[in-house]
Amino acid sequence: MEVDGKKFAQSTVMARWAAKKGGLFPKDEFDQVRAEEVAGLSEDLIWNLIPSLFEKDENVKKEMRKKINDETFPRFVGFYENILTEAGSGWAVGKEFSVADLEIYNIINWLKSGTLEHLDPT
Question: What percent of the chain has pLDDT over 90?
């Protein structure tokens, strides 16, 4: 991404910058920390998936994805549920739609898309 002649390469940094420019980054400091926490959870979940994305042996990949499906997903879904429950507003943080809601939507939508073989999209 290039803005005013300055180049940026990290997608998470670009997403947060765009969220701030677009009014989707929380204004409350506590909500900002929660939004960063949600982004970090999504990154952690992706890091858990990465080894299986590059695994060439289909049997090994299938076992890796089974463990992700049976252990990793439930743990991370629990984290997201706790954040949503704690917010108590129907939104991930604060009382309005924010970048944190987009983070949750994007990761869940990707996982449910069916594009990752050997994962239950439900």
Answer: 72
Find out whether 98 and 105 touch, Cβ atoms under 8 Å. Answer: no
Q: Give me the residue label for tokens 């309005």.
A: 96
pLDDT tens per residue, range 40-74: 999 999 999 999 999 999 999 999 999 999 999 99
| Cα dihedral across residues 3, 7, 13, 15: positive or negative | positive
CA pair distance 27, 25, nearest whole angstrom: 6
Question: 100, 86 in Cβ contact below 8 A?
Answer: no
Residue with tokens 């677009």: 22
Q: Is 105 exposed, middle or buried (0-12, 13-18, 19+ CB in 10 A)?
A: exposed
